[in-house]
UniProtKB/TrEMBL annotation:
Domain Cas12f1-like TNB, residue spans: 352-424
Biased composition (Basic residues): 120-129
Lineage: Bacteria, Bacillati, Chloroflexota, Ktedonobacteria, Ktedonobacterales
Record-given protein name: Cas12f1-like TNB domain-containing protein
Stretch list, region Disordered: 113-136, 438-510
Species assigned in the record: Ktedonobacter robiniae
Pfam families in UniProt: Cas12f1-like_TNB
Keywords assigned: DNA-binding
Record flagged with keyword S-adenosyl-L-methionine: no
């Protein structure tokens, strides 16, 4: 079985004085976490235990009970009457931070010892300049609410036990935004501060049958994969669903990339003009904060909408694999500030779409995401793999125009949309990569032919030396017509017409 965890974020509606209560609760939680971090630093051997044993040992060191009336480092000196599960939540948070810190410290010490040993061996005295990790100077963790710290949760409200600064009180809070899905395992909610508002984050765990690996899935001829070609203009994404045997089932064109790019470039141009008018940028202060926030929000929204549309399309056509290009070395072209900034943020949005589609596809039921080499995916024909001619409507069909909408293959006379052809090549490249034969080392002969001495005067042909007889030309070429280097004769079927594909999620710029 496989698991998928996601977080449901819900906005809260509460009286104004509740914000101070939430802040007091978070401050107390971080004080308790810092206290237990210091306890772990004083007793470093606790990290050798598992989390359950370490939690028990820490409670014996700090918690006052009838059987343990005088603990070594009492927690009551910090705050009285702390609930048990509030204390355990702080212990778990402190254990996680301590394990991370001491792991980094161990790595740094190993690097230092290796450097000093290397310098001693060479007879040099070059000091080690790597900085050691330091413990957290400030704590800003969000307080989780374990089982006894919340109750009466329904669709639109929840009761939370909160430290108000003077006492522990139960507060009823109204929740907004999306509802919790039914049938999934719910974790402990958290109060998270974003700016001046407080949100409730709830982890949700979904269990489903673990999917097979990509290579295993592609052994079936009817296995379906959804290949995605991401672009900077025209359409943000073009998706094509095809089977392993080459049958093309459906294609979807998502988003209006030209409108998205134009909106972003317009905002960047306004920022550039504002900067040119003032001529001064204040230190440690964000200029044009509203415009930068709008750019970030537009890119974030489009990335979420496009990734959701991709996963919806793959789920609708029962695809089990999502295929993207591995775009890691993109660099913006030279130009004005708004042009370079626009291209750079368009590249960033491609990465966001891939990251969001990866986890959304996994949550949709175990759809696996893979990436392939993007080299020449837009220049090769999806039928014969020859080089295509790319052009715009009304232009001569010659050469290759980057970003043009149409393409034609001079070898097989294939005519198609250039982005659709690229998405099909992306999917075929994954199939070619996983179905390529493994290159094994040839087995050595058990007995080698003996060499005749030069003085014997007897010449032996190569065929006579072979143990299995002379080689035949037919054996070198292979017995099958469809061997390596031979073109396949199977034809690909086209899917449904593009206008018939329904769009389930509307994007603002379409």
């Amino acid at each position: 079985m496989a698991k998928a965890t996601k977080t449901i974020r819900q906005a809260l509606h509460y009286p104004p004085q509740y914000a101070a209560y939430f802040a007091s609760n978070q401050i107390l939680f971080n004080r308790v976490v810092a206290f237990y971090f210091e306890v772990i630093q004083a007793h470093e051997g606790l990290l050798a235990l598992n989390n359950k044993e370490a939690l028990t040992a820490l409670e014996k060191l700090t918690h006052t009970t009838e059987s343990n009336p005088h603990p070594i480092m009492p927690l009551t000196d910090l705050a009285p009457d702390i609930p048990a599960l509030f204390r355990r939540a702080a212990i778990n948070a402190a254990l996680g931070s301590a394990r991370s810190f001491f792991s980094s410290l161990k790595t740094w010490r190993a690097r230092k010892e290796k450097h000093e040993a290397k310098q001693t061996k060479k007879g040099k005295s070059r000091p080690f300049r790597g900085r050691p990790p330091v413990p957290p100077r400030s704590w800003k963790k969000s307080a989780p609410f374990y089982a006894s710290l919340w109750r009466e949760r329904c669709t639109r409200s929840i009761m939370l036990k909160v430290w108000t600064g003077s006492c522990w009180s139960w507060l009823k809070i109204h929740t907004l935004s999306r509802d919790l899905p039914d049938g999934d395992l719910m974790g402990s909610p958290q109060l998270v501060r974003k700016g001046d508002r407080w949100w409730l984050h709830t982890p949700i765990e979904k269990t489903f049958e673990a999917p097979a690996k990509v290579r295993e899935q592609l052994t079936a001829a009817q296995a379906r994969l959804c290949a995605v070609d991401l672009n900077l203009d025209h359409h943000v994404a073009v998706c094509s669903v095809q089977t392993v045997d080459g049958t093309i089932l459906a294609t979807s064109f998502i988003g209006n990339g030209t409108a998205v790019s134009g909106c972003r470039k317009k905002l960047l141009g306004r920022i550039a003009r504002n900067r040119s008018q003032t001529g001064i940028i204040a230190e440690n202060e964000q200029d044009n904060a509203d415009l930068w926030a709008k750019i970030r929000h537009v890119d974030e929204q489009i990335a979420h909408l496009v990734s959701s549309r991709i996963v919806q399309f793959a789920t609708k056509h029962e695809a089990s694999i999502l295929v993207f290009e591995h775009l890691g070395n993109l660099r913006p072209e030279q130009g004005t500030y708004s042009r370079r900034g626009n291209t750079k943020r368009a590249y960033w949005m491609k990465g966001r779409i891939f990251r969001y589609a990866t986890y959304k596809a996994w949550h949709a039921g175990g759809i696996i995401t893979a990436r392939v080499n993007p080299r020449n995916t837009s220049r090769e024909c999806h039928r014969c793999h020859g080089l295509v001619v790319r052009y715009n409507q009304g232009q001569p069909q010659e050469g290759y125009t980057p970003g043009a909408a149409l393409c034609i293959c001079p070898q097989c006379q294939m005519r198609d949309h250039a982005d659709r052809n690229a998405s099909l090549r992306v999917g075929q490249r994954l199939i070619e990569r996983t179905q390529a034969p493994l290159k094994e080392k040839p087995h050595a002969l058990t007995r080698r032919a003996k060499r005749e001495p030069k003085g014997s005067g007897v010449g032996i042909s190569q065929d006579a030396k072979r143990q299995w007889g002379p080689s035949l030309p037919a054996a070198r070429r292979g017995d099958h017509a469809n061997g390596h280097g031979t073109a396949q004769r199977g034809r690909r079927r086209m899917g449904a017409p593009l206008p018939d594909i329904a769009s389930q999620l509307r994007i603002h710029f379409e």
